[in-house]
Amino acid sequence: MNSRYDLKKIIDIDKWHKLQDSLSLVTKMAIITVDYKGVPVTKHSYCQSFCQAVRQDDALSTYCQKCDARGGLEAVRTNKPYVYQCHFGIVDIAIPIIIDNQYIGAIMAGQIKLRDSNLPLERIVTRPPNAETDRKFNDLQPEYRSLPVLSSEEVSTIADMLFHLCNYIVEEAIDKNSTIELYKKTLSLEHPGADYMRPAAPTYEHIQAMQSELSSTLIETKIKNSTASVYRSTNSLLQPAFDYLYRHKHENIRLHDMAALCHVSPSYFSRVFTRETGENFSVFVPRLKVEWAKQLLETTDLPVNQISDELGFAEPGYFIKTFKKFESLTPAVYRKIYSREHAL
C-alpha cells in the first residue's frame, strides 16, 4: 500500500500530540496515530496499564500487533471506523485517515470495555489456549478491572467524531500546505533560487498565473468523487482538450481555443468532438459544469454567485439560467431539495 502523502510532513506532530492527549482525556480512550504503513507517528496517549504490561510481553505483544494490523486493514477496506475486540476481548477502534481516496494513516483508539452487548463485535485475533498466558492474565486482573467502561452508543459516537474530526484537520493541513507550496513555486518563476521570504515583486502576468493555478487547486479540492473526474477520449487528437477542460474548471473555455490546442481547425474540431461525445461542444461543456456545480451545492456552503465564478460563468444570472436548463430547477432549489432528502 502506497500513499503520495507523508503524515509526518503534513501535520505538526507536537501540536497533533497535544490534541491527541486532549481527545484521549475526553473520550477515556487510549489513542495513537500511525502512518499508512502502520508505523506510529506519535506516542500513545494514556495507554492503559493492562495494555502496557501485555505489549511489553514478547509472547503476547505479537498478538497485539496482529490486532492493530488487521483492524487497520478492515478500516481501510470499509472506508470507515472499524470497531473490534482484541485477543483479550478489549474493545479497540481503527479510524482511517483518507484524503482524496488516498489512505495516509490511521487513529488507533480504544483499550476499553463495553457496558452492554448492543454492539456485536468480531474478535479479530484468537490466541490458542496456553497455561502461561492464563497465569499472566490472572496476575493482571486488577489492571484489567480498572479499564474504562463505555456503552455501545458512546463508542459509536466517539468513533464517528474521531473519524470526521481527524480527517477534516488533516485535509485542511494538506490544503494549506498545497497553497503555500504553489505560492512559493509561482514566486520562484520570477527569481529561480531566490529566498522565498524575500521575493522581488512578481510581474502582473505571474500574479495572474498564480491566481489561476490557485483557483484550479481550490476547485479540485472542493469537487471530489466526481462521476466524471477524468475523460479518456477514443480519439487521441481530442485528449489535450479534455485534459485542459478538466484541469481548468474555473475558466470560460471556448471551442476556438480548444481547436488551436489540438492543432486543427474549429470546424473539424467541432465535428470530431460531436462524434466522440454525442453532443456539441456548446452543450457538453455547460452540462459538465452543471454536474460540477451540483457537487459544490451538495458538499459545500458556497454561495451560488461564488460557485458561478469558480466554474467560469460570465455572471450568476447566466449560471442560474444554464443550471435550470439542464436540471429544470434553480441551484438554490436544488440545494434545498438535496439537503432535505439527506436530512431524512
From TrEMBL:
The entry's keywords: DNA-binding, Transcription, Transcription regulation
SMART domains: HTH_ARAC
Protein name per UniProt: PocR ligand-binding domain-containing protein
Residues covered by the HTH araC/xylS-type domain: 239-337
SUPFAM superfamilies: Homeodomain-like
Signal peptide: none
Keyword Transcription appears in the UniProt entry: yes
